[in-house]
Design brief:
2 domains; mainly alpha; transmembrane; transmembrane helix; membrane; 244 residues; D-glucose:sodium symporter activity; Na/Glc_symporter_sf
Length: 244
Amino acid sequence: MLAALISDLTSIFNSASTLFTVDIYGRFRKGAKESELMLVGRLFVIFLVAVSIGWIPVVQGLQGSQLYLYIQSVAACLAPPIAAVYLVAILWWRANERGTFYSLVYGLLIGLIRLVLAIVYSEPVCGELDSRPWLVSKFHYMYFAVFSFASTTLVMVVVSLLSEPPVQSCLQRLTYFTAWNPQVLPEEALKVQSVGMQITVTDALRASSGPTKDPLSLTQKCAVSHADSTGGVVLSDSAVDTKC
């Protein structure tokens, strides 16, 4: 039992320190050396251990030393939004990035509010008057998990419908209904897009009656030409102007 506990803790601490060092600290210290990153990771592990030890009284006060109930209450506040986002994204092709972001923000916000209220207002002992807020005293955490899941799903659907749909070529083999579609390589998709751009530009040039009515600038023509010659890779304006 002790060995299993140590194994789980080391995995969690190692993953958390890696995320902090690479995703957070690395953004502010882009030229940091390996030795510096290793030192920061070790210091962050020490910080996590201190936070874990300091969190023990909160666990004892929240559910009366019943660790299982504490884990379930915390999971009911934070896990349903993540589950809703994954489920909707897999089963519905119309879900997009904007809907995912705002639904996660909403779900985690209400979950944190419920969790903070449960920590601040502890459960009274038997025989005492329960003066806690309604969200904590009358709304069980399992019912709150159902509400959080349903409301997060609704927010994701509404925001996704009010914003632009995702590109269909980006959904290949990522959703349930496109999991068995034939795989399209990125190079082939770019070539098809380049050919479509070339046809559109050709039609526009034929429709113009003279140089003064040419709807395309020199930079745009060169961009299409280079996009076709490079296999569909659209170059930046600076690179196009240099090559033209």
